[in-house]
Amino acid sequence: MPLTATGYRWQMTAVGAPLERTKTMTFEARVGEALVRVVGCGVCHTDLGYYFDGVAPKHALPLALGHEISGEVLSAPGREDLVGKAVIIPAVTPCGECEACQRGRGPICPNQVMPGNDIHGGFASHIVVPSSGLCVVDEPGALENQCLRDSECTLAELSVLADAVTTPYQAIERSGLAAGDLAIVIGLGGVGGFCAQIAAAQGATVVGIDINEERLALMEKYGVSKTFHSKSEDARAIKKELRSWAAERGLPRTGWKIFECSGAGAGQDLAWNLLVHDAFLSIVGFTMAKTSVRLSNLMAFDATAQGNWGCVPEYYPGALELVLSGAVKLKPFVEAHKLDDIAKVFDAAHNHKLVARAVLVP
Ligand SMILES: [Zn+2]
Ligand SMILES: [Zn+2]
Q: CB of 330 within 8 A of CB of 319?
């Protein structure tokens, strides 16, 4: 007799139409899946894109959105070891078997599963997901709503690890960043702020660049050693000042690791213009804007540019440990709300009225 649960989803029925709470329904996991009681689900820019801007999710409407999810495994046929465990569900779970997965490139797996896009998401009491990628949070008190180790966060708040923290974590892992490196983060918003914290936690000296003065001042408290206001200084001036600042401190003059997290044309131009010899440029943010660059700079500088899409489940435990150990601070950047307030929270997030990332708690 398979274990089932009854609950509800908050569903999107059409672009901008009122979100609807379903009637009581039954959730059940098949072999290879896990039935998870949702503890928290973060509200991401991507959700707002589906709901307000008409970006089409792959699954037909109605659909529950939400892909930054933490919860408790109630059943997992074939993976009984997971039952009763607190988990974080990866924003994207690759199939593990296709050509891309075999090459270790899970983020481009054509069979990947993303809650709130390919399947019903985490704005619900329960969710059924692939059991293969789940990241176990093996900490006392995880299921009792307690703060976990040195994170100052509950399991619900840890939900935003999926995506907001793991995406820059993968970008940093792939860049080969090491202690003593100089890391430059452009755009210190949701993703970029964590990118700066992770780089600092891994021993890099971090330079933060943003158009928002308050954001720059805030991030100086969270691992950013030097800031530049990109509206008041041009790329050439920033690069010149950065060179002499780095030289004074005995920091590397070459091999800078540059993370473009603003997802804006101007940010990408700036990132390109900061290339030095042996630089590594990671494009983490997305924009439709086009930019004109001299590609031969890569050749002349013997430099590398790479794109980063999402994060493979294998990196989740490492990212989780940075937060649990207190090396990366999540707490000041999240705020919990009731799931039943989802409409209000979506509006507030859409109108940029939220300072922190919202987590919805059933
Ligand atoms: Zn997201
Ligand atoms: Zn695959």
A: no
Q: What pLDDT does residue 355 have?
A: 84
Q: How confident is the model at residue 3, as a pLDDT?
A: 87
Cα of 341 vs centre of ligand 2, distance in Å, is: 36
What pLDDT is recorded for position 2? Answer: 64
Q: 161 C-alpha vs ligand 1 centroid, how far in Å? A: 10
214: number of CA atoms within 13 Å, CB side?
2
Burial of 177 (0-12, 13-18, 19+ CB in 10 A): buried
Query: Crossing angle of helices 190-201/316-324, nearest 10°?
Result: 80
User: Of 284, 321, 50, nearest to 167 (Cα)?
Assistant: 284
SS3 76: coil
* Per-residue pLDDT, 232: 76
Q: Where are the alpha helices (DSSP H) in 204-341?
A: 213-219, 235-248, 265-273, 296-301, 316-324
CB 25 within 8 A of CB 6: yes
C-alpha 287/C-alpha 271 separation (Å) is 14
Query: 97 CA to middle of ligand 2, Å?
Result: 5
Its pTM stands at 0.95
Nearest ligand, CA of residue 95? 2
Q: Considering only CA atoms, which of 212, 174, 182 is closest in space to residue 200?
A: 182
Neighbours of ion ligand 2 (CB under 5 A): 94-95, 98, 101, 109, 111
Domains of the chain as residue ranges with CATH: 4-136+330-361 (3.90.180.10), 165-307 (3.40.50.720)
Low-confidence ranges of the chain (pLDDT < 50): none
Strand intervals (E) in 59-204: 68-75, 86-89, 126-130, 135-136, 182-186
> Do 85 and 136 touch, CB atoms closer than 8 A?
yes
* Separation of CA 243 and ligand 1 centre (Å): 34
Q: Which ligand is located closest to the Cα atom of residue 160?
A: 1
Say how far apart CA 238 and CA 246 lie, in whole Å: 12
- At 262 the pLDDT is 95
